[in-house]
Specification:
With 146 residues, the protein is α/β, with parallel strands linked by helices. The chain has a single domain, classed as 3-Layer(aba) Sandwich (Rossmann fold). Helices cover 40% and strands 18% of the residues. It contains five helices and six strands. The chain has a six-stranded mixed beta sheet, with helices on both faces. Helix 3 links the parallel strand 4 and strand 5. Helix 2 packs parallel to helix 3. The termini are far apart.
Length: 146
């Protein structure tokens, strides 16, 4: 797993994202792009590593490639939802091939990605989540005080 440094513009609105892709150049480009916007970014190279990240902490959004050598994005989605059902509707799938039916509530994007479209999709996910809860890094506070 790779952790990227965060440039926080506004502490109250820092969201966390896990990027899972075996294409390091693409993963790094997305991480740098989101990091400049203040996202707390963690990257993994395949579904197994991504699942370990999901086990270790909460994320507001997971961006994953569909096809990877060791466990792909659909496997990660299934396993991650068993561990953390609150991730439902917070996955963005990427692939160079069209996917006939993305999982329910998930966003699907064709590669090559438009970073502007990705940012728009992420903003939509966190806007919906903001109505339901605070960012993942603060959710443990809500659970203990509710």
């Amino acid at each position: 797993m790779r952790k990227y440094s965060v440039t926080r513009h506004n502490e109250a609105h820092t969201f966390s994202v896990l990027i899972v892709d075996d294409n390091f150049a693409l993963s790094d480009a997305i991480a740098r792009f989101l990091g400049r916007d203040g996202w707390d970014v963690t990257a993994a190279s395949d579904g197994l590593e991504g699942l370990e990240a999901v086990r270790s902490r909460l994320f507001d959004v997971v961006i994953t490639d569909v096809h990877m050598p060791r466990r792909g994005g659909l496997w990660l989605w299934e396993e991650a939802l068993m561990l953390r059902p609150e991730l439902r509707g917070k996955f963005v799938f990427m692939s160079s091939e069209p996917h006939p039916e993305p999982p329910s509530g998930a966003v699907f994007m064709l590669k090559p990605l438009s970073l502007a479209n990705l940012k728009s999709a992420l903003q939509g996910i966190v806007r919906m989540a903001e109505g339901a809860k605070v960012p993942a890094r603060e959710s443990h506070l809500v659970q203990h005080t509710a």
